[in-house]
What we know:
The chain is mostly helical and 193 residues long. It has helices at residues 2-7, 25-30, 37-40, 57-65, 91-94, and strands spanning 78-79, 88-89, 124-126, 132-134.
Amino acid sequence: MKRWRALFPGVGIFFFTALPGLVTADRAEALLPSHNCAYCHAIHNAAGETLLNSDVVETLCLTCHGPAGISSLKADIHTDSTTAPTFRQSCRDCHDPHDNLPNWLGGTNIKLTGTVQDESGLALIATPNSGIRNVIFENRTSFIQGAPYYDGVCETCHTLTAFHRNNPSGVHNHKLGTTCTTCHDHANYFLPR
Ligand code: HEC
Ligand code: HEC
Ligand code: HEC
Ligand code: HEC
Ligand code: HEC
């Protein structure tokens, strides 16, 4: 409800289109210019909660970012197997659908990475095995942070991988300084091609 009030102070009805004046300036700037509210929300006949166009957020995102979608930027979930997964992270586990969020280092994450699980407004991720942690991703050379925080976007969740865990154990020099996703393709579950 917090976003509700921030977006429409004193307004009791949802209006998602053609109301830029009512959207607070910071929200309007934070929202991707390429993401129109109506891409994800509908005033009438919405299928999901909060007037979403689909009742499953992952399905909604993949409508456009899946193989047949209108966006040229292709993506998928993060998993080791689609048939017998030992782990499965979906879009909303890593992305905030609305905003590029600030991180605790004072910068701002790119590509909508980071979600908010508390009132701090900072980019955080609810990790599978390490609770809620910071996540840093300011450019395509900052996928990892290393010691002492290990909170880069490609390490903050990891506790069992051979490389780039969120703690000092394991190997931390695998492909240092590279753009991890040139090999770990988002459209291939982040597994190396
Ligand atoms: C890329 C898809 C997407 C776009 C674009 C989008 N939203 Fe949302 N919105 C969501 C999702 C998903 C939720 C469900 C809650 C969540 O997952 O945070 C949501 C929830 C909301 C809520 C409920 C409160 C909340 O924060 O959960 C409001 C209000 C809202 N959106 C307003 C807007 C407005 C206004 C715009 C355009 C300025 C917009 N949204 C654009 C995906 C989107
Ligand atoms: C109706 C289509 C549509 C839907 C639904 C949609 N997107 Fe997008 N998204 C786009 C388009 C279009 C772009 C701009 C790139 C392009 O032109 O292909 C984009 C760009 C992005 C980007 C790149 C932003 C950047 O800074 O480069 C991210 C990340 C993203 N979308 C995530 C999501 C997530 C997460 C969801 C679901 C909550 C979602 N999108 C739902 C159409 C969509
Ligand atoms: C494990 C975390 C994670 C999950 C899960 C995840 N993403 Fe992403 N996403 C990222 C990261 C990190 C990037 C930046 C990749 C890069 O810049 O190379 C990104 C980038 C993107 C982009 C922009 C790609 C580009 O080339 O600019 C889109 C679109 C996107 N994600 C959509 C999605 C959708 C849709 C889902 C769910 C089906 C999803 N993401 C699930 C972490 C995630
Ligand atoms: C939201 C949490 C999360 C984020 C963010 C994340 N991962 Fe993972 N990843 C996991 C989990 C959970 C595992 C299972 C092992 C573990 O728990 O350490 C895993 C395992 C992996 C594996 C091993 C897969 C296998 O076959 O066993 C690779 C490769 C991987 N991640 C790459 C990446 C890359 C590259 C990024 C950044 C683009 C990334 N991960 C970001 C959650 C995440
Ligand atoms: C040049 C391609 C390439 C780049 C760039 C790359 N990787 Fe990898 N990565 C691989 C390959 C191939 C494997 C599997 C074989 C192996 O274990 O070496 C792998 C394995 C992994 C694993 C799983 C290790 C395990 O078995 O548990 C993780 C996690 C990982 N990479 C993270 C990253 C991160 C983070 C980055 C960016 C700093 C990165 N990779 C950059 C090719 C690459």
